Amino acid sequence: MRTFNLSDYLLQYLDKTSDTPRNRQLYRLMRQAILDRVLPPDTRLPSSRDLANELQISRNTVLYAYEQLLAEGYVEARAGSGTYVADTVPDTVFMPPTPRGSNAAVSDWAQLSQRGHRLVAHAGASPQQWGAFVPGVPDVTRFPHKIWSSLQSKIWRNPAVATLTYGGGGGYQPLREVVAEYLKGSRSVDCEAGQVVITNGIHQSIDLCLRLLSDPGDVAWVEDPCYWGARNLLTASGITIRPIRVDPEGICPDHADLAVVPRFIFVTPSHQYPLGMVMSLARRRSLLEYAKTHGCWIIEDDYDSEFRYNGRPLASLQGMDSDERVLYMGTFSKTMFPGLRLGYLVLPPSLKQPFVTGMEELHRSGQAPLQATMAEFMIQGHFSSHIRKMRLLYGARLEILQQEIARHFADDVQVVGTDAGLHLALRLPEKCDDQLIAGQAREQGVIVRPLSSYYHVPDSRNAGLVLGYACVNDANIAPAFDVLARIIRRHL
Ligand SMILES: Cc1ncc(COP(=O)(O)O)c(C=O)c1O
Q1: Cα of 45 to ligand 1 centre, how many Å?
Q2: Which of 171, 175, 365, 412 has the fewest C-beta atoms under 10 angstroms from its C-beta?
Q3: Which domains does the chain have, with CATH numbers?
Q4: Ligand 1 pocket test: which of 273, 340, 454 has the largest number of ligand atoms within 8 Å of its C-beta?
Q5: CA of 202 to the centre of ligand 1 (A)
Q6: pLDDT, tens digit, for every residue of 243-272?
């Protein structure tokens, strides 16, 4: 079992935008971790130099925190061997609990399992899910809710008994059928309805794959940078992540990577998340060949390929797989609305039955009235017509945003990932602290994600910002970008 990772934890909670000096924050976080026994007695602390390097802060900041902990008896120095967490914690454990805030989160940790710790330590979901420039959120105000509501009412007027009992693990059969047809037609996925399992989204699809196909300690290759949600689910399951760099053709393992055969290869071949490139045909072939030779599972996350503005999308990786190595997953979060919580997982034929059973055992199946409404929405053509309308809308918003970026920065920043999806990425010069920029933007009501945070090890060489444009009204794009541009300009 993997142990608590001190620097990951500190990186998560150190707040660069806080008024509290960094050395005080570090001291408090470590003290709380000791009190909560997530840093148990006798744990050897990393040397101040190593910790400073890992956190990319000055050694003096770490030395202050260590000295304070030493003075208060939380740690002890052992001659010639280093600094250790003390056996007996000081009386301050009886002090009133720390107020809610970053330190309080540590107290809550004490009750968690190792798996829970890992999940919470890497949490990435933003509390803000709407407005300029929240990435990955469609314009839910344009959803044709009247059509949806009338389809739903019709189903509820005379609901079949089978829609109100526990359902089968694969989901509502007509939805499985229409999803299979849709994927065959639009994504060249090679499947029939029996291979489709309806889930409540990609997160659940990944979780199901991990529960049924992995054991702690297995290795997963993950694109670097990658989707924070996938990384978090893998980490929480005790999977050892091997970050693999991406080049313009997609995931690009080197010789050392190839020697570490993974259980899973997690990829976004249609639209790399968050940088936006499409995996080349040659790279797809090599990946499939490698997976076949070594018996790896490829997880294909096809989260937003419906929205392509330039060039034709390549068909799914799953459609090229003749050896049953690909688990394909998609979502209605982007094409419909995220609150719907519906997605689909397409399994190789050999896995379909265990997955249907696994879904039943883990989650019990249901939501048939919702799934029946979704099926009708697709069968009656509303789904494809909504996608067509939204593609035009988002394409226009993307153009406005690109014009604004060009107007403010000309060639000072590089824009990537503009061919498809609901977001783009701005690459910033190395000297820019993207976390700080994101924090300052948040204070002024503009939400962006620092690009470096999508990398396995956040690094100033990967400074940038990820901007979603789909959920921003045309008229709000320029004023919101003005605010952001002013902040960025101060850091250039
Ligand atoms: C790459 C990627 N995969 C998966 C998801 C989440 O999908 P779901 O809402 O179906 O869990 C997202 C959401 O932003 C995403 O960006």
Answers
A1: 36
A2: 412
A3: 6-109 (1.10.10.10), 144-379 (3.40.640.10), 385-491 (3.90.1150.10)
A4: 273
A5: 6
A6: 999 999 999 999 999 999 999 999 999 999
